[in-house]
Amino acid sequence: MANVYLGLGTNLGDKATNLRTAARLINDEIGKVISLSSFYETAPWGFASEHKFLNAAACVETILPPMEVLHRTQEIERTLGRTQKSVGGVYHDRLIDIDLLLYDDVILYTPELVLPHPLMIEREFVMKPLVEIASETLHPVLRKTLGELFLNVCQQSIHTPEK
Question: InterPro entries recorded for this chain (predicted)?
């Protein structure tokens, strides 16, 4: 069994229901959801939108390999009505977004999937719910706990002047 950490986000429709439905489908299609964070309301990141996000993180026990987890999360997104993926740094409003953040201590670089997620530690909306359920988990590349990395993100945001 592997522990997979997923980031969940939504900014359209009944957001809390979108996250709960995604967690149920993940449990059905990928593996047992052993922890689900609180839901956090956040501003859009990387694009302008009048719709705030609701974000969460989940830990899932699975026997599936990373690429199969990716394909199944993408199928869950389609099932829940997501029609457009973000490509090349161009982001859009979405009913659901499921990102693979960590898969045990696997380090993977492919055109389709990079693990750990390359931008996770830069995104407070990812790290805050993730740290809630996995603060002592070690980042396989940076060799620091997620809790330590989150403290660094918070300190940087405090010291970064507003534009």
Answer: Hppk, Hppk_sf
